[in-house]
User: Which sequence fits this backbone?
């Protein structure tokens, strides 16, 4: 009858003029059937294109996967902002403060040499007629670094009784040829600066003037991992009793890196699985607090108590559905996404008013009640939508309705998983350089160093000084400093 179908390979091919004329001559029914078939294929292709064009603002894709040319643009026709880069008018600037005089290493007085009016030579020091306080200008410099080498000479002494006595090295120096601060610096370079082992070797030789081989760098990192073991156990033991925990996970070579962010500390775990077994291992069989997460199935499978689902992830879902709806010309998808996004914005506006201290908790509960009810009604109205994505998301959110609003009622709960996302971000940057770990010991080292340094970041504590204290305590066999 002249009806065209895909070839044996299943690939599409262009219809030539002759084929089109044959199809036209074949009659009404074959032509209509072919047009409907092509329309269905066209919709599928548009949906696939929309999915491929989704970025981190519309899906769970990482920001690093976005096209740099199109990043932070709502669409191709978005007009470029006329604002200049940098701080805008009215922005309160940040300036480097002068350090106190008693902390300055050297003060150099500078006096004018001659008078700008009569060209007369002016006196200096105590003879000068100083009329006001001097203008202060401080220059900070690092002198050439010279490592400090301490040699221990252990003598062998013969007693009057004839016994030979050999002196023993002090315990704190017998474990390594490198001091605690150098060991802590190497750990800091790995965990915070994401420097490779070879890069650390070059840093020590070039900037510190210390010859050290790759094997020694690795050995010092392994020693630091041992020193961090009590800290790791202490924080893991404290996690189950925390009232609120933000959790997230990311790929780590052939493993998964998990983060558990509490109010005052952050705990990391590298695991071979992304499933709920890791949650049981870290938090125990039952966690009685509020778990703030995205909608990954491992969390809902493990936690039977109250959860706070991340509204930033939901915002991406709404944007993604809207984009696909526009590509498919689906009114259901567009209406659903626009309505949910409008209600989400109202909810967040009220939340930020509360956060700024301009509304009490009771007022927040009362004023968000109409928004929460409207969301529930809209989800129920869309749960049987003809659009698959709208139908699926509506049903999932209705099942998790109680887990959408705990931040409204409970102290210490945020509407987004931002704490965990920010906490894990440096680890993601590290992964782009090291590509994860190839051994179990390396995975343990990674998780312990991240736990210590990111907890210090959260507590606004100097991570390098903590690492120095920890390795010093380890070598001296005394109690490790606490991060709680």
Assistant:
């Amino acid at each position: 009858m002249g009806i065209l179908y895909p070839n044996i390979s299943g690939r599409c091919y262009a219809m030539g003029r002759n084929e089109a004329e044959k199809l036209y001559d074949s009659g009404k029914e074959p032509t209509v059937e072919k047009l409907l078939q092509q329309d269905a294929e066209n919709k599928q292709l548009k949906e696939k294109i929309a999915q491929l064009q989704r970025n981190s603002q519309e899906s769970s894709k990482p920001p690093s996967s976005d096209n740099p040319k199109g990043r932070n643009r709502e669409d191709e026709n978005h007009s470029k902002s006329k604002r200049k880069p940098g701080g805008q008018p009215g922005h309160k600037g940040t300036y480097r403060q002068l350090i106190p005089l008693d902390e300055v290493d050297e003060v150099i007085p500078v006096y004018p040499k001659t008078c700008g009016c009569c060209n007369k030579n002016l006196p200096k020091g105590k003879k000068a007629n100083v009329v006001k306080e001097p203008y202060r200008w401080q220059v900070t410099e690092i002198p050439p670094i010279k490592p400090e080498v301490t040699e221990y000479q252990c003598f062998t002494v013969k007693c009057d009784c004839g016994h030979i006595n050999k002196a023993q090295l002090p315990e704190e120096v017998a474990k390594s040829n490198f001091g605690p601060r150098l060991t802590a610096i190497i750990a800091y370079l790995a965990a915070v600066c994401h420097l490779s082992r070879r890069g650390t070797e070059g840093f020590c030789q070039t900037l510190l003037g210390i010859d050290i081989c790759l094997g020694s760098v690795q050995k010092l990192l392994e020693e630091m991992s041992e020193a961090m073991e009590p800290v790791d156990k202490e924080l893991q033991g404290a996690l189950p009793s925390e009232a609120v925990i933000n959790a997230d996970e990311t790929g780590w070579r052939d493993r998964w890196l998990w983060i558990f962010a509490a109010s005052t500390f952050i705990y990391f775990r590298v695991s071979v699985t992304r499933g709920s077994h890791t949650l049981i291992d870290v938090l125990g069989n039952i966690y009685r607090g509020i778990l703030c997460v995205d909608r990954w199935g491992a969390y809902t499978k493990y936690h039977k108590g109250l959860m706070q689902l991340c509204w930033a992830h939901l915002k991406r879902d709404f944007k993604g559905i809207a984009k696909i709806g526009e590509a498919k010309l689906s009114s259901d998808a567009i209406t659903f996404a626009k309505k949910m996004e409008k209600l989400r914005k109202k909810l967040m506006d009220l939340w930020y008013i509360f956060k700024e201290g301009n509304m009490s908790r009771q007022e927040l509960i009362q004023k968000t009640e109409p928004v929460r009810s409207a969301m529930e009604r809209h989800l129920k109205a869309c749960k049987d939508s003809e659009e698959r994505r709208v139908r699926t998301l509506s049903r999932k959110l209705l099942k998790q309705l109680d887990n959408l609003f705990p931040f409204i009622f409970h102290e210490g709960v945020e509407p987004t998983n931002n704490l965990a996302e920010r906490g894990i971000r440096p680890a993601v940057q590290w992964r782009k350089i090291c590509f994860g770990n190839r051994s179990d010991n390396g995975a343990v080292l990674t998780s312990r160093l991240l736990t210590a340094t990111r907890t210090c970041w959260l507590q606004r504590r100097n991570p390098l000084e903590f690492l120095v204290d920890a390795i010093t305590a380890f070598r001296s066999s005394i109690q490790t400093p606490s991060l709680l």
